[in-house]
Write a structure and sequence with these properties.
By secondary structure, this protein is α+β, with helices and mostly antiparallel strands. 18% of the residues lie in helices and 36% in strands. The chain folds into two domains: 2-45, no CATH class; 52-113, CPE0013-like (CPE0013-like fold), CATH 3.10.530.10. Bound molecules: iron/sulfur cluster.
């Protein structure tokens, strides 16, 4: 039997969850709603996170462009994904939602811009 304590990050309430695994079945306690149960089970089987970060940008007023994964990325892949993200340099102009890296690590997850940046000469 495995037991883990965690905080649900699905909403600002932050319920303290206890997830117990026995014979492949997961029981979540401490959640105030169904989302907490889903979150607790996913944390035990396939934890994922939206990754907010920045990439280099040329030709804009700022030197870094804020980006994020368009959907949550498997947690064990975040370190490898960050190595690729850190190698990228984009060219202004960029619009919010533009894909900076498509299908990173063959996961189906795109890295997208989270703000627009105009070109400055
Ligand atoms: S269990 Fe429900 S109420 Fe509690 S933090 Fe998660 S989403 Fe919010």
């Amino acid at each position: 039997m495995e037991e883990r304590k965690m905080i649900c990050i699905s909403c600002p309430i932050g319920c303290h969850l206890t997830v117990t695994e026995e014979n492949g079945e997961y029981v979540v306690e401490g959640n105030q709603c169904k989302r907490g149960e889903v979150y607790g089970k996913k944390e035990m089987t396939d934890p994922t996170r939206v990754v907010p970060t920045t990439v280099k940008i040329r030709g804009a007023r700022l030197r870094r462009l804020p980006v994020k994964t368009h959907i949550p990325l498997s947690k064990p892949l975040i370190f490898e994904a960050m190595k690729l993200i850190n190698m990228v340099e984009v060219e202004a102009p960029v619009k919010v939602g533009d894909i900076v890296i498509e299908n990173i690590l063959d996961t189906g997850v795109n890295i997208v811009a989270t703000r627009s940046m105009k070109r400055v000469e």
